[in-house]
Amino acid sequence: MQLNFENWGLVPYDVALRKQEELFNRKVEQKLLSQGDISEDFIVCTHPHVYTLGKHGKASNLLANDDFLKKIGASFYHINRGGDITYHGPGQIVGYPSLDIDSLNLTLRTYIESIEESVIQLMDDYNIKCERLKGATGVWIDAHTSHARKICAIGVKASRGITMHGFAFNVNTDLTYFNYINPCGFTDKGVTSMKQELGQEFDTSLVAKQLFDKFVSIVE
């Protein structure tokens, strides 16, 4: 098994979504027709300011109107992943693993847990203690306290074992943009970033590659 790491760099959300859908549809068709091995691609990128709402999310969790979104330079998309509303922007690693989780011997649940575990282990290397919160997908700090804050959000889609969408991991993210939503539908929990926790900026390309290496070590 070989997992490929690919960094798309800074890319508009709609462009990345179209590229994802093309990959997803091609791999589903390839699998249905049994046309050889399907490539396992761990894709990362960064987006300009954008809010995305999952298919079962509540539009009321976006707290800004169209005029305000234009004022802060943000766009909005209602998409077909799981989860509620989240924010993507500069300083954040957005991951779009395009995988055949069947070939990796993963269920959708264990795939999501593998992403969570990758972030938890990587943050431990940076002396940031993270954990899971029951009933709330993603990676949290002080999860079971009144100071619970999320550092990585996860929302995925899978069909025929092929995945799309993925995770949003806050490295140097401008957290003020989260003030205009109820992140992931929560009104009583916060968000954070590596920069917020440690008081310095980090090389997002390096952190993304380190995260990929953790993921590979977990799923292999």
Q: Uncertain regions: pLDDT < 50 for 5+ in a row?
A: none
The average pLDDT score comes to 93
The total count of helices amounts to 5
Helix content: 25-40%
Q: DSSP strand (E) fraction?
A: 25-35%
- Describe the largest sheet: 8 strands, mixed
End-to-end separation in angstroms reads 8 Å
Please give the radius of gyration in angstroms.
Answer: 17 Å
Order of helices and strands: EHEEHEEEHEEEEEHH
Structural class, from secondary structure content?
Answer: alpha/beta
Report the count of strand segments. Answer: 11
Shape estimate? globular
Structure, described:
This protein has 220 residues and is an alpha/beta fold. It contains five helices and eleven strands. The chain has helices at residues 13-32, 66-71, 108-125, 194-198, 204-219; strands at 3-10, 40-46, 50-53, 75-78, 85-88, 92-95, 131-133, 136-141, 149-159, 162-170, 190-191. Strands 1, 2, 6, 7, 8, 9, 10 and 11 form an eight-stranded mixed β-sheet that branches. Strand 3, helix 2 and strand 4 form a beta-alpha-beta unit. Helix 3 (108-125) crosses helix 5 (204-219). It is globular. The mean pLDDT is 93.
Index terms:
220 residues, 8-stranded mixed sheet, 28% strand, 11 strands, alpha/beta, 3-stranded mixed sheet, 5 helices, 30% helix, single chain
What layout of secondary structure does this protein have?
Layout: E1 3-10, H1 13-32, E2 40-46, E3 50-53, H2 66-71, E4 75-78, E5 85-88, E6 92-95, H3 108-125, E7 131-133, E8 136-141, E9 149-159, E10 162-170, E11 190-191, H4 194-198, H5 204-219
Parallel strand pairs: 1-2, 3-4, 9-11
Antiparallel strand pairs: 2-6, 3-5, 6-10, 7-8, 8-9, 9-10
Helix pairs in contact: 3-5
